Amino acid sequence: MIKFVFERMHKRRQSEDMFVKMRNRLTIMYSGMLVLFLLVFIIIVYTSLFWMVSYQQKKEVNSLADQKLLESQNLLKSDMNGNDSTIDDKKKITLNNNYFFYYVYNQQGELIAANETIPDLRQSLLQMLKDWSVKYTDVNSKTENLTYSENGSEFWRQKDSNDGNLDNRGWGKDLQNNWDKDTTLTVSSGKKIHMAIMARIIYDGDQRIGKMYLGQDTTYYWTIINWMLTIFIGLAILFFIISFLVGSSMSKRAMVPIIKSYTQQRHFVADASHELRTPLSILNSSIDVLELEEGENISEFSRNVLMDMKDEVKRMTTLVNDLLSLARSDAGLTNISFETFDFIPVVEQLDRSIQPLAVSRHIKLNLHTPADLLVSGDKERLKQLLYILIDNAIKYTPQHGTVNLFLSMGVNDDHEESLLIQVQDTGIGIQPADQKKIFNRFYRVDKNRTKQIEGTGIGLAIAKWIVEEHKGTIQLSSHLGEGSVFTVKIPQISPK
């Protein structure tokens, strides 16, 4: 009883697993679509924000340069007029909170004015500017974003082209750009400073008289950018969880009508198959009565009609029984009854019942069995298994072909004592592409070629189910035009 309950629960779990896998696929699909749209939205928003901040920095540093332009012109004119005051005097130029450094060079490349918010960084900043090749054509300015780490680290630059060629020692030279070179500074603090710097050529009318370098502290903006990135990542994780829950809920709702339809279909097949068994049995019995009572009085034509009716009723009964077996297996209502018995008498009885079919098709059916063979299993199901395999072999073997049945005891792949069943035919064979589908329900190889062969395509599905209920395996070996071999291995389990 416990074993029956366990097997029934196992069958239900198999059916449930099918829907669980389907639901998981739907969940992944739904949540994946939501996450994809979310990621696209975040990328667009973050990219737009990044561009806006960069544009604002460039705009502000240009505005600061415009504010310092007149002061720089006056300093350069004063230098050209022979004012030889020292840098320490000239560096007293005013810097507000928006500036990080401010340097002015004359035409000869001499520093004539300087100031910075961190005086200790002057040499490092000057070296960095010396190594920075600035391009120009007709434009008079160049901006660059730069990140500086005071913990003995480097400058990181983001190019922001305005064009042309300008270096710190002369004018108009066609120099190679060196945008990726970093300047290493060693300062005790670990603070990182982000700067946007600008180089601008100073004119007096049409005459170049010097150049100006200006740097703005943009750490605040980059801090906002980094915080926004962190917030977006957090939102992405949060919405990923939400989208997964929403996708799971949507897939659950989508599965409700599918499960309901599947359950109704399964119940319909089971009920219809069960209801058809009774009228078919009555019809078959009625035909037998007619044959007994009227056998001598009816015409040859009527006798043939009765025989045809009996064959059709028998075929319908077999089909109904097969459908009922599948319906019960889906519902987990089947009960395999294990017992130990001699399999040879069962095989001989089956041979007697199926030989007329083989003879009518001019097919030779050979049995290769020992004198006796004790097996453990369900007698009726194993008999049904043999019938399906032999009947299938006869149907797909042309006239004057051969079908061989081999029975013996051996071992399976797990080295367990097993009942070995082989059904070999010289039939039409099966293509490799079809061999993987041959055990699927209602599947028939090449329907155009086999449409005149009786059958519904569920026999091998039932055979596989019987083998699996006995914890065994069934394999197919076939070559097109040479025939097929079905090999069954059923481990021998003592009945309890």
From TrEMBL:
Histidine kinase domain span: 271-494
Enzyme Commission number(s): 2.7.13.3
Catalytic activity: ATP + protein L-histidine = ADP + protein N-phospho-L-histidine
PROSITE patterns listed in its UniProt record: HIS_KIN (PS50109)
A GO term from the CC aspect: plasma membrane
Principal subcellular localization: membrane
One GO MF term: ATP binding
Bilayer topology annotation: Multi-pass membrane protein
Membrane-spanning intervals of the chain: 28-53, 220-246
Keywords, comma-separated and alphabetical: ATP-binding, Kinase, Membrane, Nucleotide-binding, Phosphoprotein, Transferase, Transmembrane, Transmembrane helix, Two-component regulatory system
Protein's UniProt keywords contain Transmembrane helix: yes
Subcellular location(s) of the protein: Cell membrane
Top EC class, one word: transferase
Pfam families: HATPase_c, HisKA
UniProt xrefs under PANTHER family: HYBRID SIGNAL TRANSDUCTION HISTIDINE KINASE C (PTHR43547:SF2), TWO-COMPONENT HISTIDINE KINASE (PTHR43547)
Protein name: histidine kinase
Naturally occurring in which organism (per UniProt): Paenibacillus agri
